[in-house]
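Figure-free illustration: sequence to structure, shown twice.
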Amino acid sequence: PEPMIRIDRVATWIFIAAFAMLVPSIQFLGYLDECVAVALLALAVADSMLNTGAWRRYRLLWILWGIMAFYAVYSMTVVNYTSRMPIIIDTLIESKPFITLFVMMAVRPVLTGADKKLLRGIAVVNVVVCALVLLLPNSYIRMAIQHISYGGIFIFLSTLVYMMCSIRSDGTISSHNKLTIVVMALTGLTCGRSKFYAEFVFLLFFLFAYRPGILRRITLRQIAGAALLVALVVAVTWRKFSFYFLTGNSGATTFDPSVVESFARPVLYFTGFRILLDHIPFGTGLASFASFRSIEPYSGVYTEYGINRVHGLSPEMPSFICDAYYPSLAQFGIVGVALFAWLIAYVIRLIGSLVRCGSSPQIALYSVGMLCVLFVLIESTTGTAMVNCGGVMAMLILGIVAGRAIDRLSSASVDQSV
């Protein structure tokens, strides 16, 4: 019999609702990402309880919670740099993006024609609204979306949703929709973020240049194109990379160790590396370093490593503590870094089946998945979108793509067995 509630449709409605509320989430719906994660987690639990054997589909989710439970206990008993409640809250914060990814991968929702039409409409509205906001004076931008960077993030994610929903039954995207995608992405250049410039370049590459096996059949022309791509990425990101990681506010043209503590982000990276070496193998624990919940109460890690007087990292002025995602991995130690790297490699290999398996490679869908991975990796260098609404939305999209890849692998296995 047909079930009364279809789990895949509920997951689709959650995705559509989250996407529709993406732009106002920063200013008016601050807990949207937590609500999405909790809703999907509840959906997985309900599915596992109501349907015999369904729990096996969510094995990655249960493994995640096993790992996070271990780190929570470890944080409260072994290292104990902060109090119990921040650790519990940080458990949810750090789990959010992975919950959304694993549940969407397990449920494997398939968007209907009506779903795609609705999502394309929302995507266009999101881009138009963000583009208009980015043209306003800074005071109005702060009122609308808090920071100009969110405009670029929302535009890029909306462009990816439009791209995913424009893929035809043969796996391609029409020239008209490609033009629309480029125009939508172009509006994001007004945010002035170097990270967006890099993401935009990769979008153009996957939209117009990528072909399966491009690295195996490499030619001089492709080498020249790749070199041009790298040069373009470096050119558009170098100034801010130099400021954030080399010269900072020192005004020097080369790295000067004597001013390392005059700017917060390099200090976070440098200290995070020291933590990985000092606290082998599990790090300093949840809510202890470079995460939002390590601010109040103020984590003892900052005092232990002598960075509690750095501007932006001090108890009186902690504004830059939660300023990049990668340093926060030091909380999980070398084991956590290895697990994160494994997950990225696993997802890349999984969505790669979209172009490796089957008779017709799904290049466009694979491109959407890879652009989500690149978005997460790039944004994590100098921001915490990974654990905010931007990262959760990217993981929702990636989960849909990965679910299609799992379906494709299953079909390929059935065909081989027959």
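We now fold a second protein in the same way, so the two outputs can be compared directly.
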Amino acid sequence: MSVTFADIEAAAGRLAGHAVETPLIESPALNDRLGRRVLIKPETLQRVGAFKFRGAFNRLSQLSADERTRGVVAFSSGNHAQGVALAARLLGMPALIVMPSDAPSVKVEATRSYGAEIRLYDRMTESREAIAAAIAAKRGAVIVPAFDDPHIIAGQGTAGLELVRQARARGAEFAAVLTPVGGGGLIAGVSTAVKGLSPETKIFGVEPAGYDDTLRSLRAGERIGVKPAFRTLCDALESPAPGEITFPIVQKNVSDIAAVDDAEVAEAVRYAAATLKLVVEPGGAAGLAALLAGKFANLPDGPAGLVLSGGNIDPDLLARILRREI
């Protein structure tokens, strides 16, 4: 099962009037530092503070009246949780979110504030998939995946539609577009949209070091999972394997993937705050981290598009990063 450009255009129609068309911004200071023009898509300014609202609303808006009555179940460390919770509230259906007990409190509290019921679990001893499946079976609810769903992917792809069209309105054609990579929903959707409008544009993804399952999978030519021995600052990108639906799209569209470590990500969060005047969570800053650290020797000359995918960072963590304690 794949996702087409037409699917993404249809998703854009459903999202019109509900999702924010986030702006495209440019920083002369960043351009000077990198020696190239970079146009930034701050999905930090999207509803729920992350791109995840796009996919969640596109998925939930297509449920039948009966399915809406029975509600939805999702599992997420935070941004997908918030996206599903808000979309469910707007569409008038119940939602239960399975969240890890160590998820950032800012994300747990925000999810609860949108009216969702929360079931916490221990990510080291319990299976979130099993918990969600049991709850969904008992309630007759629909499980809403975080990334491996064609409607979710199409919704995320609307950010790519906006990105290219906004750039063209400013006289720019992208040589490259960079996005963070977790399970692959964002890069699969954005790459499909970008390639549909600009086939020559190269797509690059960025993962956290130790969670570079998509990079390893691309090199192997098949989906490979990882079992990290440590956590990363990029809690939003801690996916153990690329999705069954997302991976073939990534194989087709993506030129390269890079991995960034926590020190590089922390520097990007600081740079975003100090220079771009944007609050960006670590996972959302992965692409910026790769640019600042020069991770892509094969990045083509010309304007680059950069997706900052989320801004839901715990205030205490942000303070520690800004004080250079991390």
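Summary for the second example: The chain has a mean pLDDT of 96.
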